[in-house]
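Lab manual, section 2.4: Encoding a predicted structure.

Procedure: take the sequence of the chain (145 residues), apply the prediction step described in section 2.3, and record the output as structure tokens. A sample record is shown.
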Amino acid sequence: FRRLEQEKNRLEGEIKTLYEYLTEDGMPGVSGPLVDDEGFPRGDIDLYAVRQARNKYVCAQTDHIEVMKKIEQAIAAIHATTKVDVPRERPAEKMEEDLPENDSENVFLQVKLSTPFATIDEVSAASPAEAAGLRVGDQICRFGA
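Recorded output:
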């Protein structure tokens, strides 16, 4: 994990340095034109250096995205192996509405999105979890958008 973090920091530093170079006074920026109004190459800048810096900038951004994906996977792997045990005064009880009245009336469609990393073992009354529709026994496979 530390190696990934060092790589991320190195790439962020490189991206910042290249961006500052490309956006200095008189430079065309990250995507500005390298030709003048008549279509000729600009004479006031080193075109080769600018194109090389832009290439390095884009490659560093792509590498940064890949490193961030690896960090995300590493964090998910770390948290997937841990489990928090919360002491309770009494065990959580299932709510009456969680139990189906008649199996023929209730059809459940199970879709496996990914491996669950948490199981709901308690839902307090009037809590955000209850408002969101979470029930005891639900398994959390992902969160966020």
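Check your result against the sample. Residues 104-112 have pLDDT under 50 and may be disordered.
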